[in-house]
Design a protein that fits this description.
This protein has about 60 residues and is an all-alpha fold. The protein has a domain of about 35 residues. The protein is built from 2 helices and no strands. The longest helix has 16 residues. It starts with a helix and ends in a 15-residue tail after the last helix.
Length: about 60
Protein backbone atom coordinates (compact mmCIF):
# COMPACT_ATOMS: atom_id res chain seq x y z
CA UNK A 1 0.00 0.00 0.00
CA UNK A 2 2.77 2.43 0.94
CA UNK A 3 4.62 1.68 -2.30
CA UNK A 4 1.51 2.56 -4.33
CA UNK A 5 1.14 5.84 -2.43
CA UNK A 6 4.78 6.75 -3.10
CA UNK A 7 4.41 5.89 -6.79
CA UNK A 8 1.28 8.06 -7.06
CA UNK A 9 3.07 10.93 -5.30
CA UNK A 10 6.08 10.65 -7.65
CA UNK A 11 3.77 10.71 -10.68
CA UNK A 12 1.96 13.78 -9.31
CA UNK A 13 5.28 15.56 -8.64
CA UNK A 14 6.45 14.94 -12.22
CA UNK A 15 3.15 16.25 -13.59
CA UNK A 16 3.39 19.45 -11.52
CA UNK A 17 6.96 20.13 -12.72
CA UNK A 18 5.74 20.17 -16.32
CA UNK A 19 2.94 22.66 -15.71
CA UNK A 20 3.04 26.40 -15.12
CA UNK A 21 0.74 27.79 -12.47
CA UNK A 22 -0.20 31.41 -11.95
CA UNK A 23 0.35 31.97 -8.25
CA UNK A 24 -0.82 35.57 -8.03
CA UNK A 25 -1.90 38.51 -10.11
CA UNK A 26 -1.06 41.99 -8.86
CA UNK A 27 -3.07 45.06 -9.71
CA UNK A 28 -1.24 48.35 -9.28
CA UNK A 29 -3.17 51.42 -10.41
CA UNK A 30 -1.36 54.23 -12.20
CA UNK A 31 -0.35 56.98 -9.82
CA UNK A 32 0.28 60.61 -10.65
CA UNK A 33 2.64 62.70 -8.58
CA UNK A 34 2.47 66.40 -9.31
CA UNK A 35 4.52 67.90 -6.49
CA UNK A 36 7.87 67.07 -4.91
CA UNK A 37 9.58 67.88 -1.62
CA UNK A 38 13.02 69.43 -1.65
CA UNK A 39 15.79 66.80 -1.47
CA UNK A 40 16.55 67.59 2.19
CA UNK A 41 12.88 67.46 3.21
CA UNK A 42 12.35 64.27 1.20
CA UNK A 43 15.21 62.56 3.05
CA UNK A 44 13.81 63.55 6.44
CA UNK A 45 10.26 62.45 5.54
CA UNK A 46 11.22 59.28 3.69
CA UNK A 47 9.44 60.17 0.46
CA UNK A 48 9.87 62.60 -2.39
CA UNK A 49 6.14 62.91 -2.99
CA UNK A 50 3.80 64.91 -0.71
CA UNK A 51 0.90 62.77 -1.94
CA UNK A 52 2.44 59.81 -0.11
CA UNK A 53 3.35 61.70 3.05
CA UNK A 54 1.09 60.98 5.99
CA UNK A 55 -0.46 57.85 4.50
CA UNK A 56 1.44 55.64 6.95
CA UNK A 57 2.15 56.26 10.60
CA UNK A 58 5.85 56.87 11.18
CA UNK A 59 7.28 55.11 14.26
CA UNK A 60 9.12 57.30 16.76
Amino acid sequence: MEEETNRAHDHESKMMKNQCYMLAHAYVPWQRYEKAFSPCEALSKGTLFPELWGVYRIPK
